[in-house]
Amino acid sequence: VSVLLMTDRHNLANRVKVAHLAAHVFLQKPLFPEQVLEALSKARSHSPSTVARVMVVDDDTNILAGMRTLLEPLGLSLQTLEEPPQFLNVLEKFSPDLLVLDLKMPHFSGVELCQVLRNMPQWHWLPILFLTAHTDERTINQIFTAGANEYISKTVSPSELTPRILNCLERSFLHRSLAGLSSS
Length: 184
Known about the structure:
The protein is of the alpha/beta class. It has helices spanning 12-20, 33-45, 61-71, 87-94, 110-118, 137-146, 158-182; strands at residues 4-7, 25-28, 53-57, 77-81, 98-101, 128-132, 150-153. The chain has 7 helices and 7 strands; from the N terminus they run βαβαβαβαβαβαβα. The protein has a 5-stranded parallel β-sheet with strand order 4-3-5-6-7, sandwiched between helices. The chain has a two-stranded parallel sheet with strand order 1-2. The two termini are 23 Å apart.
């Protein structure tokens, strides 16, 4: 169920209360009826009934199989890729809502793929999560400098990985929904 809250009280304390109530959109009065209808329409289009698409690029087939085992039972649509040279073709065809990259791969690194996407206007919004065995400060700085939104160690447990991926997807849908509202 999508929850929209309309109020003329827009202070932080009220926004925190709304967040605790799991509202999806906070609308500030005064509003025109068209704005409310548009907000409802956009909230419905990004509701959990929409199947989220996750693309995972890693040269390790065990990681790809593990991600498939972890994510497909959640109802997510998953595209795995172990050959980075095919990256752009698969990305365009699959059109993911979240991209998970490995750092070190043959041909092109995850950092290089991330930088390519951040320079493409049609993909600059795409959340990018790195799943990597390299968690030293220099590497993490390199990942975020390239434009990543998040990183997770490959040693993380599935019980921690799943909610982090779902949170990235939820933030992505919410961000795009709110960006659409603010442009109207």
